[in-house]
C-alpha cells in the first residue's frame, strides 16, 4: 500500500464524505469554534449535557479530509462519556482511531476538533483547557 | 533577414545551476511549484556566500583590520548592487532589513507612530499580504487613525472606482499596496495608486516581494515613497531584504530597532542616530546574506528579467489551459495578461491541503492555505486555495505532473 493510500484510507474518506454527528444542536449547552491558522481549517462543536455526561455532540466545519474525518470520528468516540473524562482524553486515543501516519502539520489538522471539543467542555462544565490553548481567550480562538 | 528573436530562457540549462533538483522527493524528480513562497537557490549564490565566509568574513563597520575592511566592502558593495537593481537614486536610500515584513514594520513604526493620529486614514488594498496589512491595521489602531481597505472585484483586481469614496473616512496619510499579489498573481496598477495617493496627500508603501523576482522594479519610475523587497524570493538567501525609501523621508523618520551600529553618539542622557541607512540597521547585520543577495541579483540579472517574465508568461498560459481542462477545477484571479506566474485554484470536493498532499506523493510541491491573504480569501468566499507558482527554473512538464496529480486526487475522493 502506498504512503498516500494509507493516509487516505477508506475509513478517512468515508468519514470525510459522510461525517457522523454533523450539524447543529438546538439549545446546545455549550458551543465552541476554532481554526487552524496555518490552513484556515474551521471546526465548531455543540454539546448537550445530561448532568455531566455528553448526551449529544455535533460539529460543523470546513477543512481538509484529515481535520473533518478526525472530528467526525471524535463525535462517535465521545458521546455518552463524561465531560471530565473527555477533557482529559489523550491525543493518542484519537490518533489511534484515526490510524494514519501524520506529519507535524497534518497532526494539527487531526487534533483541531479535539481542541475545540475541549474548549466547549471548558465553557459548559469548567473542565481544564488543553495546554496549547492556555492563555488564549475565546475570541482569539474564533 | 530574419528579425532577431528576443533571448529566450533555457529553463533546462538554468536548472543545472540549482542543486536541489538533484534530490528526488518520494523517489520522483522534484517539481517545485512554490516559488512565490520562496525560490530555490543556484550554486552561484551558495558559492558566493561560502567563499565570503571562507575568505573575507568579519564583523563590519567597526574593525580597522584588513579582514573587517574587506567584509565591510563586500557588504556595502551588495548595497550598491541592490541600489542599481531597483534604480534607486542613492545607496543611502537602501536599508537592509530581515525581509519585507521587517521593511514594512520599519516604516509603520518609524514613520506611522509619529505621523498618524485621529482623523487620519490608513489604507491598504484587499490584495495585501498580511505583511503590508497587519502592521498598518495595528499602527492605525495604536494612533487612533482610521483603517480601511481598497476593495477588490470578483476577478481579484482592485476596484479603483472605490478610491474616492474612501475619502469620507478621513484624511489619507498612507496607502499600502503590493506591486503583485501573492495568491492570485494580480499585477496592481501601482503608478495609478501613487498618483491618486499623492494627489490626496498620502504616502505610498509598496510591497514588491512578488514583483522584484519576476519583473524590473524601478523605484523612481514607480513614484512611490517606500518599496520593500526580499532576497529569498529571487534566488537569494533568507534573512535579508531591503527597504528603499526617499532619502528625505528616511532622514526625518524615527528608527525602529535600537542598539548597536545605528547610533552616532551615546551618553547616559541622550543618544543620537547614525546617518541613513545605518540608522535603520541596528545590530550585527546579515553580512553573508547581503553578499548572497547581491549574487542572486547578479544571477537573475544575467538570466534577464524580460526573459524570465516571458518564460513565466508561457508557463502561466500553459497552466491556465491545462488546469482548466480538469473537471471540478475552479481558477481564481485575472486573465494571464494582468498577472505573473502564480495560479490559485480549488478542486471541487477536495480541500487544498489534501490536494497538496496528494500531489506531493508525485514529487510536486504546491502551496495550500490562505497564503497570508485572509481578507482576500474571505472576499473570494474560500478559506484556502491551492497555489502553484513558477520561476525561471520551472518546466511546463512540471505543470503537467501537477495536472496528473489532480486527476489522481479526483479519483481518490470520488
Structure description:
The complex is a heterodimer of chains A (142) and B (414). Chain A has 142 residues and is α+β, with helices and mostly antiparallel strands. The mean pLDDT of chain A is 88. With 414 residues, chain B is α/β, with parallel strands linked by helices. Chain B has 2 domains: 141 residues, Aspartate Aminotransferase, domain 1; 254 residues, Aspartate Aminotransferase, domain 2 (3-Layer(aba) Sandwich). Chain B contains 13 helices and 15 strands. Chain B has a 7-stranded mixed sheet, sandwiched between helices. Chain B has a 4-stranded antiparallel sheet with strand order 11-12-15-14, with helices on one face. In chain B, helix 5 links the parallel strand 3 and strand 4. Chain B is globular and about 70 Å long.
Fill in the keyword field for this structure.
heterodimer, A: 142 residues, alpha+beta, Sufe protein. Chain: A, three-stranded antiparallel sheet, 46% helix, 19% strand, B: 414 residues, alpha/beta, Aspartate Aminotransferase, domain 1, Aspartate Aminotransferase, domain 2, 2 domains, seven-stranded mixed sheet, four-stranded antiparallel sheet, 13 helices
Question: Quick summary of this structure?
Answer:
Chain A is of the alpha+beta class. Chain A has a single domain, classed as Sufe protein. Chain: A (Alpha-Beta Complex). Helices cover 46% and strands 19% of the residues of chain A.
Q: Profile the largest sheet of chain B.
A: 7 strands, mixed
* Proportion of residues in helical segments of chain B: 25-40%
Provide the residue-averaged pLDDT of chain B: 95
Number of helices of chain A: 7
The H-level CATH homologous superfamily of the largest domain in chain B, spelled out, is Type I PLP-dependent aspartate aminotransferase-like (Major domain)
Taking all residues together, what is the mean pLDDT of chain A?
88
Major sheet of chain A: 3 strands, antiparallel
Structural class of chain B: alpha/beta
Amino acid at each position: 500500500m502506498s504512503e498516500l493510500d494509507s493516509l487516505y484510507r477508506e475509513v478517512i474518506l468515508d468519514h470525510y464524505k459522510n461525517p457522523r454527528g454533523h450539524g447543529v444542536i438546538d439549545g446546545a449547552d455549550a458551543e465552541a469554534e476554532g481554526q487552524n491558522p496555518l490552513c484556515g481549517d474551521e471546526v465548531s462543536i455543540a454539546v448537550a449535557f445530561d448532568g455531566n455526561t455528553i448526551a449529544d455532540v455535533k460539529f460543523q466545519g470546513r477543512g481538509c479530509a484529515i481535520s473533518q474525518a478526525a472530528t467526525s470520528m471524535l463525535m462517535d468516540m465521545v458521546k455518552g462519556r463524561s465531560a471530565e473524562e473527555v477533557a482529559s482524553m489523550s491525543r493518542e486515543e484519537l490518533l489511534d482511531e484515526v490510524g494514519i501516519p501524520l506529519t507535524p502539520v497534518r497532526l494539527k489538522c487531526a487534533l483541531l476538533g479535539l481542541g475545540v471539543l475541549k474548549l466547549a467542555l471548558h465553557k459548559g462544565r469548567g473542565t481544564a483547557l488543553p495546554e496549547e490553548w492556555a492563555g488564549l481567550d475565546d475570541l482569539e480562538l474564533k | 533577414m530574419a528579425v532577431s528573436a528576443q533571448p529566450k530562457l533555457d529553463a533546462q540549462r538554468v536548472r543545472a545551476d540549482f542543486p536541489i533538483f538533484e534530490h528526488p522527493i518520494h523517489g520522483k524528480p522534484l517539481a517545485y511549484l512554490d516559488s512565490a513562497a520562496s525560490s530555490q537557490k543556484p550554486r552561484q549564490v551558495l558559492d558566493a556566500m561560502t567563499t565570503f565566509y571562507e575568505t573575507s568574513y568579519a564583523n563590519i563597520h567597526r574593525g580597522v583590520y584588513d579582514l573587517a575592511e574587506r567584509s565591510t566592502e563586500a557588504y556595502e558593495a551588495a548595497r550598491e548592487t541592490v541600489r542599481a537593481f531597483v534604480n534607486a537614486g542613492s545607496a543611502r536610500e537602501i536599508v537592509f532589513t530581515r525581509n519585507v515584513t521587517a521593511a514594512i514594520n520599519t516604516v509603520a513604526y518609524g514613520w506611522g507612530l509619529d505621523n498618524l493620529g485621529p482623523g487620519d486614514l490608513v489604507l491598504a488594498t484587499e490584495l495585501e499580504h498580511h505583511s503590508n496589512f497587519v502592521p498598518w491595521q495595528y499602527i492605525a489602531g495604536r494612533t487612533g487613525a482610521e483603517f480601511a481597505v481598497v476593495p477588490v472585484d470578483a476577478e481579484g483586481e482592485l476596484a479603483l472606482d472605490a478610491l474616492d469614496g474612501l475619502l469620507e473616512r478621513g484624511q489619507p496619510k498612507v496607502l499600502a499596496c503590493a506591486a503583485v499579489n501573492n495568491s492570485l498573481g494580480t499585477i496592481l496598477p501601482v503608478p495609478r495608486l501613487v498618483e491618486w495617493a499623492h494627489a490626496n496627500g498620502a504616502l505610498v508603501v509598496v510591497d514588491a516581494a512578488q514583483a522584484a523576482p519576476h519583473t524590473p522594479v524601478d523605484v523612481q519610475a514607480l513614484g512611490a515613497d517606500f518599496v520593500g523587497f526580499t532576497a529569498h524570493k529571487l534566488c537569494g538567501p533568507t534573512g535579508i531584504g531591503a527597504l528603499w525609501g526617499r532619502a528625505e523621508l528616511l532622514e526625518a523618520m524615527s528608527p525602529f530597532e535600537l542598539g548597536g551600529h545605528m547610533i552616532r553618539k551615546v551618553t547616559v542622557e541622550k543618544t543620537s542616530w547614525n546617518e541613513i541607512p545605518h540608522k535603520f540597521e541596528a545590530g550585527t547585520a546579515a553580512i553573508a546574506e547581503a553578499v548572497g543577495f547581491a549574487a542572486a541579483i547578479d544571477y537573475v540579472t544575467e538570466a534577464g528579467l524580460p526573459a524570465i517574465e516571458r518564460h513565466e508568461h508561457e508557463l502561466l498560459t500553459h497552466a491556465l489551459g491545462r488546469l482548466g481542462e480538469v473537471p471540478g477545477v475552479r481558477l481564481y484571479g485575472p486573465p494571464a495578461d494582468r498577472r505573473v506566474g502564480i495560479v490559485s485554484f480549488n478542486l471541487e470536493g477536495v480541500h487544498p491541503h489534501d490536494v497538496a498532499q496528494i500531489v506531493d506523493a508525485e514529487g510536486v510541491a504546491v502551496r495550500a492555505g490562505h497564503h497570508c491573504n485572509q481578507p482576500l480569501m474571505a472576499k473570494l468566499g474560500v478559506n484556502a486555495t491551492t497555489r502553484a507558482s513558477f520561476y525561471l527554473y520551472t518546466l511546463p512538464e512540471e505543470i503537467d505532473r501537477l495536472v496528473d496529480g489532480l486527476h489522481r486526487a479526483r479519483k481518490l475522493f470520488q
